[in-house]
Amino acid sequence: xxxxxxxxxxxxxxxxxxxxxxxxxxxxxxxxxxxxxxxxxxxxxxxxxxxxxxxxxxxxxxxxxxxxxxxxxxxxxxxxxxxxxxxxxxxxxxxxxxxxxxxxxxxxxxxxxxxxxxxxxxxxxxxxxxxxxxxxxxxxxxxxxxxxxxxxxxxxxxxxxxxxxxxxxxxxxxxxxxxxxxxxxxxxxxxxxxxxxxxxxxxxxxxxxxxxxxxxxxxxxxxxxxxxxxxxxxxxxxxxxxxxxxxxxxxxxxxxxxxxxxxxxxxxxxxxxxxxxxxxxxxxxxxxxxxxxxxxxxxxxxxxxxxxxxxxxxxxxxxxxxxxxxxxxxxxxxxxxxxxxxxxxxxxxxxxxxxxxxxxxxxxxxxxxxxxxxxxxxxxxxxxxxxxxxxxxxxxxxxxxxxxxxxxxxxxxxxxxxxxxxxxxxxxxxxxxxxxxxxxxxxxxxxxxxxxxxxxxxxxxxxxxxxxxxxxxxxxxxxxxxxxxxxxxxxxxxxxxxxxxxxxxxxxxxxxxxxx
Length: 516
Description:
The protein is an alpha/beta fold. The chain is built from 23 helices and ten strands.
């Protein structure tokens, strides 16, 4: 699209002009209208303008004065003057300023259309010339340009790229740095080089189709774009590029963009800004455009109490509390405070896992054996979110493994306790005796029973005894008092009461009901 700025202090004339330009079949986009030269210049600072249609006679700042300042901002802008006076002096001055055209009010539709076709043709020629210059940048000069951007070039090398930079910066330009995400683990090694070349070629053609500037392939699998288009258009183009790559390739890209530059040093600073923005991918995530990273700088703050947090995380792991595990992880890896550098995050992970491992060893558990831990996989991840997601899965897995293991151990423990008690039902077995046999305190065993079985140990023991009583009552040769003594009851009346409380009938009624 060719961008157009309309300038006229008469609101009616300005609206008439806007409607005619918008209704033109030519690839024109009205990016702004202004009622004065001052407002128009402000718009030009924010937008790259290809064509200006401006009234000559305006208060305070005349159209001529505005045009001179506009040419200073953008020497290649095409300016068409519109005047209500057939004044040769104005026309002469416009010619001296190298204006693209001069129209008299009232402007006829066909005259305006013819003039727009002429300036559009001039804009396209200028763009083509810049494309040729960009394409003519040799491989050697592209390498020199990358070296210059990285602050690694010699003085004599800069002479080779100076003409390109001068041409590029006539409009103002900005730098962007593109990084292909997850190359190491999403693309097989044998396909990696060809896939990177395909993406680089795709980016280059995309930039060319959008008049987006010069594309340079760096040695570190990154791609640099130096673009002379306006900030708004550059942002829009880069966002579209991110989406296009996502739709067409098995991997995504993340783009860091710098601010617009007007001279050579500012362009190099724009490149540094783009690199800094891209490094923030670690924090803000991938598959996106990153511009402003001012809020991600690390301040000097005290580290959180890592030891206490890890202890609380271990407690959550042992209790199979997945929500608490996640809360602890998020607190340890607080992106807003401390984890804005990979090395810090790796060191933090080592500290966390070392402490977890040491604490688990005290419980005869080995973290690394349980999870078959491979720390090298951490270095494949490109963002803190990737690492958090991986750690979350592994710690959830650890918590579940320990939970299942404990459940099996408890099941085995209770099987052993039940066998021990069953073998001694005909003796006067007590909670203290059972607890001592299994090296527990009576209180702990009682609590364990309540938690796992849902009833008190004494109630469970009574149930087991009554089950044994019913088995013995099935033998008609045994007297009721003999059965009571065998299961530990010395008082026959108390025994009868307990049995009736449990079954709803006395031992005699039980035998009668079951015809024993």
